[in-house]
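SECTION: protein entry
WANTED: fold as tokens:
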Amino acid sequence: MRLNDVKKALAAHETELKEQGVKSLAIFGSVARGDAGPDSDVDLLIEFDRTVGLFHFIHVKDFLGGLLEGAHVDLVMREAVYEELKEDIYGEAVNVL
């Protein structure tokens, strides 16, 4: 998937994502860099406005995958990013919400 397609698909559902507690959402990885192939996953960095449990996290991950036409989504919570990866991930992240 291309960056603009992902941004457009996610931004179109901003209200629903906010209702699910999504505070911020950003694209990183190969899609953000513009070098994603046809089988590439979509890496998303997420922050919730409240504490969420595993089931809610998986629900949101599946919801995002559905918005992206069934693309495989790797969903990473912003606060769970390893310190040694923060500079790379945050540096290439493209904000959606």
Summary: The first strand starts at residue 22 and ends at 28. The chain has one domain: 3-95. The radius of gyration is 12 Å.
